[in-house]
Amino acid sequence: MTHDTIPSDRIVVGVDGSALARPALEWAAREADGRRASLLLVMAQEVAQPAPHELGWSYGLEELVQQGTERVLDEAQATVRASHPGLEVATQAVWGSPSAALIEASRHGQLVVTGSRGAGGWEGLLLGSVSGAVAAHAHCPVVVVPDRAAGAPADGPVVLGVDDSAEGHRAALFAFGEADGRGLPLVAVRAWTMEFEGGVVPTEEGSSAHAEMSRRHTELVEHVLQHGREQHPDVVVETRTLRGSSVKVLAEASRTASLVVVGSRGRGGFAGMLLGSTSRQVLQSSHAPVAVVRV
After folding, report:
1. How many Å separate Cα 168 from the centre of its chain?
2. Among 23, 175, 219, 252, which residue's CB has the most CB atoms within a 10 Å radius?
3. Measured at the alpha carbon of residue 159, what is the angle toward residues 157 and 163, in degrees to the nearest 5?
4. What is the pLDDT, as a whole number, of residue 26?
5. 265-285: string of b/e by CB count within 10 Å (b at 16+)?
6. Helices (H), 84-207
7. Class of the CATH-defined domain 158-293
8. Counting beta carbons within 10 angstroms of the beta carbon of residue 139, is it exposed (0 to 12), middle (13 to 18) or buried (19 or more)?
9. CA separation (Å) from 263 to 16, 62, 84, 85, 141?
10. How many helices and strands, by DSSP H and E, does the chain display?
11. Amino acid 284: pLDDT
């Protein structure tokens, strides 16, 4: 199978021929069209080494797999070209791991798009091994499009999960760019839970401890948004500082969002953990596509 050179203005999308991957393909095509970028469809196949007694059965298997892969890619390419006739669309068939193929392609792409789970995913599994691995290891931002996100409003706001980590600051700049490019507002959400202030947990709204905690988180939000506001002054920004779980707050906000943006790992994540627990849970619970920004 072939390995093409991937220009940096390309958006990469994983294809496997399943209905579960269709929303990701459609989202990637719209995004590439909107960015005036080209689109690369990547499909990878693995063929296990057969046991000696299976050699007769497996003769010619690789050729059949390659033909099937190319057929799926050709059909996907034709579908994209029919709905986006001006879009440059290329295909790439790869032997090996789908996640490894997309991670490699991400070295020179500006964005990688994948479904939340592929044809081999178990029913009820909201985040597949491929999407999880790509989100954790890709060299550019990754957008995971769950099959239920097909109904996400195209004119909904871009929702940003605010975090004061290096990844969180990069995610904020990415979210501003997405909102500006789409002409949409940005909703910046900061959730906070049990924290001590003055030796007590501020459980009651209206208490001085609660007010002080809210003020500190509001200041943190403004700090994280500062560079984005300067670079994208036309973006309308709404900030929300809410008491509760980050995952639950972002999942609720995702119901009306066109895109949710998070950093790959928050300030509380373990060193070396490439995809934090909050990011992973948001990928599993969001009703809209989720962009994970790591680098």
Report:
1. 14
2. 175
3. 155
4. 93
5. bbeebeeeebbbebbbbbbbb
6. 98-105, 129-137, 166-182
7. alpha beta
8. middle
9. 27, 39, 30, 34, 9
10. 9, 10
11. 85
pLDDT of residue 214: 79
Residue 229: Cβ-neighbour burial (10 angstroms; 0-12, 13-18, 19+): middle
CA distance 272 to 270: 6
Angle between helices 246-253 and 277-285 (to 10 degrees): 30
- Where do the CATH 3.40.50.12370 domains begin and end in the chain? 158-293
Give the model's pLDDT for residue 251. Answer: 92
Residue 68 to residue 89: CA distance in whole angstroms: 19
pLDDT of residue 202: 56
pLDDT at 120: 45
For the domain made up of 10-150, give the CATH fold: Rossmann fold (3.40.50)
pLDDT of residue 64: 78
Distance in angstroms (rounded) separating the CA atoms of residues 223 and 217? 10
Q: How far apart are CA 47 and CA 197, in angstroms?
A: 57
Domain span(s) for CATH 3.40.50.620 in the chain: 10-150
- Per-10-residue mean pLDDT for the chain, 295 residues long? 52 89 92 93 75 52 79 95 95 90 92 76 49 89 85 90 91 96 96 63 65 84 96 97 87 94 65 60 90 85
What is the predicted pLDDT for the residue at 170? 94
Consecutive H or E run containing 7: none
- Based on its alpha-carbon atoms, the radius of gyration of the chain, rounded to whole angstroms, reads 21
Q: How far, in Å, CA of 228 to CA of 234, rounded?
A: 10
